[in-house]
Amino acid sequence: MRYKHGHLQQTARHLMIACSLSCCMTSSVSSAAEPVTSDVSLIIGTWGGPYEAAQYTALFHPFEQHTGMAVSTADYTGGLAVLNEPSPPDILDMLQDEAEVACEAGLLLEFDHASLVDADRGIASTTQRASAGEDLARDSFARHDFYRGVFSDCSVAHLSFSTLIAYDERAFTSEKPQYIKDLFDLERFPGKRALQRSPAALFEWAMMAEGVPVSQIYDLLSTERGLRLVMNRLEKLRGHVIWWDNPAEAVAMLEQGDAVMASGYNGRFFEAWSRGVPINMIWDGQIIDRSVWAIPASSSASMATKLAFLRFALHPERLAHMARQIPYGPLRKSAFKYIGLHPDSGIVMRDHLPTAEHHLANALHRDTRWYARTLRLREDYFSRWLAEGE
Amino acid sequence: METGSRQGNTSYRFVVLTLMGCGLGTVVSLAALLFVECVRWLNSALLIAPRARVQFADPTLLAILTVLVPTVGGLLVGHLLHRFSAEKRVLGPPDVILSAQLRKPLPGIRSGLMSTIAAILSLGCGASVGQYGPLVYLGALLASTLDRFKLRIPNARSVAIACGVAAAISTAFNAPIAGLVFAHEVILRHYSLQAFAPTTVASASGFVVANVLFERPPLFLVAFDGVGHAYEFGLFALLGVLCALLAVVFMKCVIGSARLAAKMPVHASFRPAIAGVVVGFVALQIPDVLGIGSELLRFATIEGAFSNPELAVLVVSKLLLTALCLGFGFAGGIFSPSLLVGILFGALCWNLLGTAGIETSGIAVYGISSMVALASAVIGAPLTAILIVFELTRNYELTIAAMVSVVFANLIVFRLAGRSLFDIQLAARGVDLSGGRDQAQMQHARLIELELSQAVTVLPEDTSAAAHAKLLGEKRAEAVVVDSSRKFSGVLRLQDLSSDSSVLVKNLQQSEALYLFDDLSLWDAMNEMKGYVGESIPVLSRTEHRLLGVISESAIVEAYLQIVHQSRQEENDAL
Predict the structure, then answer these.
(1) Domain count of chain B?
(2) pLDDT at A121 over 70
(3) b/e per residue, B237-249, with b = 16+ CB within 10 A?
């Protein structure tokens, strides 16, 4: 595991930090001179790229400032392997379905959600703006401020993101692909597709391309017949796919013209688009998923510290700050009123969230439990199909 | 439901009927949603739904449960109905039709509840039955609770039933117009404004509750860009004809399976379990047969989802299993299985057209036309079916194509079998609706319910003179000849009397004279009376031929006119 961003700024003992948060102390930020040793820092496993950069600005750095605690990050690209390592990160930013599997396998710690919600009063009063603080405190008490299904035994969801297809504007000068079925239409939209080497999302899209409404996608994918149809659909793409494993590659392939369409995450595509890369996203058939915070069972830092971080990270203003950096939707209703413009480009971020009204016409919410329990079945079908081509 | 002088005025009726529509619409809609939700939950919990099955880790246990669940479900359903329902059978649309057509109350509320619970269990444990029949009954059942109030509105019961049924269909299909039309086409069988107005309110209320409050998506969206070739309308008509033949086979199977079940030396409460075992074992090979099969319905609109042999096997197995489940006493309807068999059959026909090299406008239109053609012919509701297509798919072109198939299917099934499976089932119970509701009501009204007059009786041993004196004394032209135990022997008319006063009555009486039995229906009495001329007709008890009294021809005609009058009034009432 590679540790980055060693922003080790100041010292503070775990107990003091926990106390400073829970006892509503506003003066917790102490002098920023002394170096810190790694055993008192918090290691967070997350996804790198523009996403991690946004997290650093919106979350890690403010947390460091607020608590005097140092945060460092570890590269994480999904999967459960990291959880079996001797020293996994203290907190992991996971996909919800993988967290579910890991939880059932006992690889994650269970924690009490009540402590995350009730402590909001303390966090609210530590924010600089008093009026906003009061406002927040009032909003935050109600547990229903969180969307349904945010809390589960071993994890708490913090943002929603979208897996979708983006295309290279330069490749299609006349008709542009608009619908998810266009991904499979090589006649009208010829060119290479950069796709994640995984059945995730791809199976759903193949089913959608058959005209199945989103409400029935998982019902049909649960049958052998449905999976057979998916295989037939994928067969049409054989020889026209470049596989990627790291989401950064998807953007790069579009940017360099290696592929004309690519699957990927809306945040990364947005980041490239706002840099001026000529790409566009197909919101039809987007798959909305959630990222969760989870605590690996064998992680070392103290529980109080980790919960303190989670409380901080779930604060509406932190969530909103995150959404200002990268268009991932907060999972607290009160957070939406704090989302404003992108700090550099001035883009109205609310319009670019996966959950924006005009993106939801044909959006699929991923069934994480189904995902967790059908992982092997889908992997089997997918790897058999891959092997057939070799 | 009183008639006569104590009826409320127009504004009172307006208010009550509107409130009835609104209230029933809302309550029935919520109940229907609860019903559907219960079934969905059970399907998930009992590993019927593919989405639940695929997530179940242990294949051996899954196989065991696949057989066990419908079997145990069958046992529960059988015992529930047998122990706690007075009718000891499933209640469904035929009972509702009967109540509305003959102005009779529905079976008891307890029986209705048991039937509804049995239906939830049947559907929940994967029996091959439909949910719309039980939902229709649930709507009518809730409406029948209004019977307790004296509303002082003519025909309030049938109007309430129509409201309940409309709301149930409106909610279940998310199709308010179809709900409205179904209540009139299948249940009321007339279109009076008095019923139409509150039923519309109920249907709309059901729609509002289901759609606006709970945000349910349209049930069956399909993409269809229109019929490409004019000759395809001929194919749709042909498809309708084929569907009609399949519908007749389906109906015969359902009826035949019920007969077979009745002949089996197994107690009625164990019969559903037999069907459950069969469903379970078939499902081990073909899991698609379990439950309502909404996944199959969708697959049938996707080109290449099935091979021809697969389709043929599914059509046959679903048809036979549905017949088995319904005949052996699982609680449920026939409409959803008909939809499923129909759409699979349509997909098969489309595949064959492709093999024959005929160009078509895609599988969806053939599947859906066939689906509604078959289902509408089975339940006798062509107009409802056409509207269901329209409201479910929101596609005008598709509706027009389906309309052609629906009409041909209904025409032929009407000729070959009758108006619907419901009417055939009712006819088996002695209520023939094929001649219209007047006839059915007359068939249902017993002669004994009419007031009989006292007869002038003479004994066979009386002399002509004695009989003459008696007739003159009573100022009557006819006397009934009975023996000492009032057993009927004949009729003696004034003109039969002999001038020889000592001749005995038994030598003068008309032994072939017309008489009627008390258990005859009004309809049969009218038929017996054809060509009858006389003062009054003796009415006898069927078993011992004892004289109960006499009835005049005019009394029978009056009873007939009253039935006709009531019906015409119900059918033409504005409010």
Answers:
(1) 3
(2) no
(3) bebbebbbebbbe
